[in-house]
Design brief:
The chain has 14 helices and no strands. By secondary structure, it is mainly α. α5 packs antiparallel against α6 and α10 runs antiparallel to α14. The longest helix has 19 residues. The radius of gyration is 20 Å and the shape is elongated.
Amino acid sequence: RARRYYDLTGGLGRAALLMHEVKQLLKEGKVRKAKSRAFEAAEEFRPVFMQPEHMLSDEELMSFAEALVISGQVEEAIPVLEEVEQRSLKYHFLVGTCYKALGKKDDAIEAFRNAIKRYEYEQDLNSMVCLSFLNLSEILMQKKQYLSALTSLEVLLKNYPHKLDEDYPRYPLFVDDYVADDALFLTGIINLILDRFPDGIVSLLKTQRYYPDLEYGKIVASESEILIETMENKDWLFLDNLVNEFLDIYYEAHQLY
């Protein structure tokens, strides 16, 4: 009954229009306005979802979850996603995103690995497999599982497009719509953490050489002379502070809204 009422009054139709606007606003980098519209969309979905037999489709449930994630209500997205019946690539990616934001690392790892496995059955039209590899690498790094994180990044760089699909899920937002510079940058940092200093510096300098106009190419460029001098002099102690500085920059850029 609640679903029929909302269909007749255009409630869910308005939610769909709002989410379309949200995605366009994120493409334009208008995050604050996108968050506001996402909140409005979530409020359109909520009354229908709260009914004992809400009849929301899987796509509508995932759209509701996206609205909650983008508007900063991540924890509320989990019970919404639990109602999804068809466990698709998008479903697993959303679950992983939520658990990662909530600091539930093991659950996030499982979800992103499940997303990656869906590549056998679904086309990765929106770069969600690619982004699952990147998210997986970040969490493995946080758990100090550096070799596994490196493997994940190497697979990403070798097998997936370096530019994200136009309609990739922008949570979080990538400044330049590329993922390769992020992955190569992290590869360099991990090698430095593992005391593979020449390999780490080379990976960082490659980030600048291959992607000079992208976000992390520019960040490395600001330190390139120091990195080259450090490698020539083998003054590895200096790198500890630089690794921490680079990680702070990276994690700040990759936070949810």
